[in-house]
Design a protein that fits this description.
Layout (H helix, E strand, L loop, with lengths): L1 H9 L2 H8 L2 H10 L5 H13 L3 E6 L7 H21 L3 E5 L10 H18 L3 E3 L7 H15 L2 E6 L5 H8 L5 E5 L14 H16 L4 E5 L3 H10 L8 E5 L4 H9 L4 E7 L4 H10 L1 H13 L1
Parallel strand pairs: 1-2, 1-8, 2-3, 3-4, 4-5, 5-6, 6-7, 7-8
The structure holds flavin-adenine dinucleotide.
């Protein structure tokens, strides 16, 4: 499978050096990443807000090696929330729990998420918990449930490719907040995840359930027109807010069209210098991106 092949190659350190250490590699990253600093991310957010879109800021990083790094990431997110408050941009944050310490010390990760939720309440913004590899799904949901019950301003991503997600959706909806439905970006085995078009069917079923439900706010995260169409059909029956979400640098034309049609669109804006793993997932989603990179590498 293409995704597995690309992620297998990009995990090798030689590939990492080739991408992070070359101009074409960094140029490709720049298409999907707003910049390395918070200031650049805020500028990107202002530009998107001006185009009628909301933003979710993602300070890049995942799987920290020591708990000090989790603290540093938490501090960076607190600065990000302070910038949202100070600049008045229409943004929330997206965060990976392995970046806050999950896997090293889950209590620390929960406490760090709680600090972000509290700061978010003060700034009037929500906090979305990204979903990572399947080893972490259950812990991610448990940490989300604990902090959401206490603070009430969280959201969580669910991956349509996992067999367990239909049950997770029923479990999570009563907690309220927003639920970001995405296909799933990691290489997961057949034993626990749908593959190929089965992911699309699962996505459509989950989107239907989510849009029909009044407890949680649906955030439909896809660039796939065939997934967007049934959601637009369901809109008339939808009571309460919902939104589309798309990634920075992916299908900007479609983002603008949806705004012009009167829909709420939130763009996920990553920033920071730890962009390599994020970039590899974007490459694995679309083989054309890999070809583009290889051509640039050979050409220059
Ligand atoms: C806002 C947001 C948040 C996300 N959060 C998570 C998360 O927390 N956990 C997780 O596992 N996954 C997350 N994802 C990624 C998601 O799981 C998919 O891997 C990704 O969105 C591609 O799937 P798709 O639905 O866009 O459909 P696809 O069928 O992959 O793409 C449909 C079309 O969109 C365009 N497209 C899609 N991806 C790219 C790309 N990288 N480059 C260029 N064009 C592209 C192409 O035109 C393609 O034909 C998120 C996605 C979004 C939009």
């Amino acid at each position: 499978m293409m995704r597995r092949a690309v992620l297998g190659v990009t995990e090798r350190s030689v590939t990492r050096r080739m991408v992070t250490g070359t101009r074409p590699g960094r140029a490709l990253a720049r298409r999907f990443v707003a910049g390395e600093t918070l200031e650049e991310a805020v500028e990107a957010a202002k530009e998107l807000n001006a185009a009628g879109m909301k933003v979710s800021l993602d300070y890049l990083g995942e799987h920290v090696d020591v708990i000090d790094e989790a603290e540093a990431a938490t501090q960076s997110y607190l600065e990000c929330i302070a910038a949202i408050k100070d600049t008045g941009i229409d943004a929330n944050i997206s965060v990976k729990l392995t970046q806050l310490g999950m896997g090293l010390d889950d209590d620390v990760a929960r406490s760090n998420l709680d600090r972000l939720a509290v700061a978010g309440l003060d700034a009037g913004c929500t906090v979305t918990v990204d979903m990572e590899e399947s080893d972490f799904t259950e812990t991610t949901i448990q940490i989300f449930e604990t902090v959401q019950t206490e603070r009430g301003n969280l959201g969580i991503a669910l991956q349509a490719y996992l067999h367990r997600t239909a049950d997770d959706l029923e479990r999570i909806m009563p907690a309220g907040g927003h639920i970001r439905l995405c296909k799933g970006a990691y290489a997961e085995p057949d034993s626990i995840a749908f593959q190929g078009h089965a992911v699309d069917s699962a996505f459509d079923d989950l989107a239907e359930t989510l849009m029909a439900n009044g407890m949680a706010m649906p955030a439909i995260a896809t660039h796939d027109d065939a997934r967007i169409a049934p959601v637009l059909d369901a809109v008339e029956d939808r009571e309460g807010p919902w939104e589309f979400q798309m990634l920075y640098g992916v299908r900007r034309d479609r983002q603008e069209e949806l705004v012009a049609e009167g829909h709420q669109v939130r763009v996920y804006v990553p920033y920071g210098d730890a962009w390599y793993p994020y970039l590899t997932r974007r490459l694995a989603e679309r083989p054309a991106n890999v070809k583009f990179f290889l051509r640039a590498l050979v050409g220059g």
